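Researcher: We're teaching a course module on how sequence relates to structure. For the next exercise, students receive a sequence and then see the predicted structure as C-alpha cells, so they can try to spot secondary structure elements on their own. Here is the exercise chain.
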Amino acid sequence: MATGNINVSVENIFPLIKKFLYSDHEIFLRELISNATDATLKLKHLTNIGEAKVEYGNPQIEIKIDKENKKLHIIDQGLGMSADEVEKYINQVAFSGAEEFLDKYKDGAKDAGIIGHFGLGFYSAFMVADKVEIITKSFKDDAAAHWICDGSPTFSLDIADKADRGTEIILHIAEDSTEFLEESRINELLVKYNKFMPVPIKFGTKEETLPKAEDAPEDAEAEKITVDNIINNPTPAWTKQPSELKDEDYKGFYRELYPSQFEEPLFNIHLNVDYPFNLTGILYFPRLGQDMNMQKDKIQLYQNQVFVTDNVEGIVPEFLTMLRGVIDSPDIPLNVSRSYLQADGAVKKISSYITRKVADKLNSLFKNDREDFEKKWNDIKIVIEYGMLSEDKFFEKADKFALYPTVDNTHFTFEELQEKIKDSQTDKDGKLVVLYASNKDEQHAYVQAAKDKGYEVLLLDSPIVSHLIQKLETSKENVTFVRVDSDHVDNLIKKEEETISKLSDEEKETLKTNLEKVIPSTKYTVQLEALDSTTSPFMITQPEFMRRMKEMQQTGGGGMNMFGNMPEMYNLVVNTNHELIGKIMEQNEDADRDALVKQALDLAKLSQNLLKGEDLTNFVKRSFELIK
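Model: And here is the predicted structure for the students to work with:
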C-alpha cells in the first residue's frame, strides 16, 4: 500500500479563484476592506495590551480610483507586514493570518472584532485584476516590502520606499472588469457591503457648508470647506448597549437602514447575547400588509459589521423574515464566499433565541400597554399568526397575547373569549362554537343575523386564517371554529327550544319538489329549515369543512391539493316560516312560482357575491320587470 500527499497545481489556482471561489466578483472589495479592517483592529488590540509601542491614533481605510491608469487602491493604516510576513501570509494560499492571530491571543482578539477566517480573501483581487501589487510596512522596525504578481504562479518581492505603517493594495483592473473603475459602482459596493464597518472608510472628498456666524451679515455667503468623504458609520446602533439608546436613536438607525422608507416602524427589539453564542442586532416591526411574500428579505445579516446577505432564511425563523433590521454574529458559519449559510447546531440555537426574544417583547408590550397593542394588532397580526402556525414554541408563548378581534372591534385573548361565550355558544355535545367572519362587508347579512341572536362574531381576515383555525382546533380542547356563512349556524349551537315549521310534511315535500325544478342540483343542495320568521327566506351556506380545505389548498396547504379540482358546492337553506315561502306555495302558475324562486335565489347569491355574468344580467332585467 502506498501513501503520500496530494499535490495542488499552483498554475491552476488563479483561474479557479477567478471563476469559482466567489459567486459574485463584486465581493472582492468587501474582502480586501475586511482584510484592511482586520489589520487595523489587530493593531488596536496590540496597542491596548502593550505589545505594539506605537500611537494608534485615528486610522482610516482609503479607497482611491486611478481611472486613467486603470488602478484601484485600497490603503490602510494598520499593522502592516514585513517581507517575511508577506512570504508567510500572501504566498501560502489559504493560510489565514486572522486565524493565527485569534489562536495566539484567544478571547481578547475575538472581542477585538477580527473578521477573516479563511485566508482566501486577498486572492479575490484576481477576480477583477490581471496584476496585483502590495506595498506594506510593519508597525515594527522592519523595512517596507513590495510584492507583485500578475496572476501566474510567479511573484516578485523587493524592498519598498514606504515610511508610514500600513498596507496599500493596488489592483490593475482587467479589461473585463472596468466597471470597477467607475466611482458610482465603487460607491454602490461600499454602501452595500461596508456601510457599518468598524473602521472609517474614506472615498474621495466632499464639500460641507459651515453655519454662518451669529453676527454675520444676511447677504454674507456661507463658507464651504472640503472634508474627507467617510461613507460608513463605524458605530451603528446595534453595537451599543440598549441602555445607551433612546427611542429616537432606534428610529434614526431605521432611517439609516432604509432611507427610502417613509413610515416609521411600530417598535423594535434589541438583540444582545454573548453566551452560548455571540449575537447582536435590532429587529423592527414595520406596518405589515396582508401579502406575506412582499415583505421578505429586509433583514440584513452581518458578520463583525461586514455585510453578508439579506437572505437570512435558516437563521431567522421564517415567520420573522417579514421583519426588518440587522443581525450580526461571528458564530454563524459561512462558506468561503460568505454567501451561503450552513445549517448546524449554532444556527438552530440562534433561531430559537430570536424566536424567544420576539415572543417576550410582544408579551411585554401586551402587558404594559394593552390599549396600544390592540391598536397595532392589524399591523402585526400576520407575523404573530404565521408564527403560531409554524413554530410550536412560539405558539405556546403567543397564546398569552394573541388577540381575537370581533366585528365590533373588541379584542379578546383566547382565554377571555372562552369565558365570554361559554354559556351561549356551545353545541349539543358541549363543544365551544367560535363564530367568525373573514370579510365583514361581504358576509354582513350573516354577521347581523348571528349578532341579532346574541352571538359573538370574530373578524379573522388574514390570508392564513384557515390554517390557523385548524391549528387552534387541534391544540384546544372542545373548540370548533365556524364561519358565519357556513352550514346553518343555528344547527351547531344548542338552543333552548326548537322553532316549529308552519308547513306540514306534505307541504314541505311539495315545496322541495317545486324548488328543485328551478334550482340547479349540480351546485346546490336544498335544505328546508324551520327558522325565525325574520330570517331571510333563502340563505346560501357552504359546508365548513370543504370550504376550509379549499382555502387551505389555495394558500399552500401541503396535502390539500386533492380539494383543488373539486366543484364548488353550496347549501340552499330555505326558511319554511318566512312569508315569501308561503307566497311561493300559493302560486298556481308555474311561471309565476319559478320567477319568485329565481328572484329569491339570486338575492341570496348576491349576498354571497356569487351572482355574476349572465345570471347577474338576467337578475337586473327581472328586477326592473318586478318594479314595473
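Model: If you want an answer key for the exercise: The radius of gyration is 35 Å. The first strand starts at residue 61 and ends at 66.
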